[in-house]
Specification:
about 220 residues; alpha+beta; 5 helices; about 10% strand
């Protein structure tokens, strides 16, 4: 089954020129009732969550979760989550050492804890040929970690915003410009959603004004 799922992802990626993601709202079986404690991975521009029972990270303005088969990302700490094509998972996420995976899948067994997982073995030759440089980097030139969206501490299980509210709250409180292509794509999608919502609000206001004008005319 694992090879079938991976092959499906890789086949989809070969047909697309932009980061391929599934629909938002994927259930990944975790629930985080409050903003988690995030700790920097030494030497990497990535944070991990030592108190969360999941392979849970923060990088480049996004939260990332690995369920043992697939990667998911979200702008908010408890989702909603989007499945990420293996070809577009950021290299710095892939480079995080095995020791920071709290729920490592069985095929991690025997791999060195201080090394990155062997993704080239997991995802196969096609992935490795296109992402062959994923673990080649100068540790002295690693970028600075993105700032944490600590404003989300104000939102827990009782007042956690829905997807429709999240984009607006995020844009008002988090001014970071992402580095990664897939993250930039998410932010572009967010801006497009906001523009669409504004147009819908404007149309609604116009309809209300027109109805009010017609009522006023009838009363004259």
């Amino acid at each position: 089954m694992r090879s079938v799922v991976i092959a499906a992802w890789l086949g989809l990626a070969s047909l697309t020129a932009v980061p391929a993601s599934a629909a938002v709202g994927v259930s990944i079986g975790i629930n985080i009732p409050a903003y988690p404690r995030l700790v920097s991975v030494p030497g990497y521009p990535v944070y991990y969550a030592p108190d969360v029972d999941a392979n849970y990270f923060f990088y480049d303005g996004m939260y990332w979760v690995f369920d043992g088969e697939n990667w998911y990302d979200s702008r908010w700490y408890n989702g909603p989550w989007t499945a990420v094509d293996p070809f577009y998972v950021p290299a710095f996420i892939l480079r995080v050492p095995v020791r920071y995976y709290h729920r490592p899948p069985g095929y991690f067994r025997g791999w060195r804890a201080d090394y990155a997982p062997r993704w080239h073995e997991h995802w196969g030759g096609d992935w490795a040929s296109r992402r062959g440089d994923w673990n080649r980097w100068d540790r002295r030139s690693a970028p600075r970690a993105a700032p944490l969206p600590s404003y989300q501490q104000r939102y827990s299980a009782n007042n956690y915003p829905g997807a429709a509210q999240q984009a607006q709250i995020h844009s008002q409180n988090y001014r970071y410009t992402p580095r990664e292509e897939i993250v930039r794509q998410h932010y572009q999608d967010q801006r497009a959603e906001q523009r669409q919502e504004r147009r819908q609000d404007q149309r609604q206001e116009q309809r209300q004004e027109q109805r009010q004008e017609r009522r006023d005319e009838r009363q004259r």
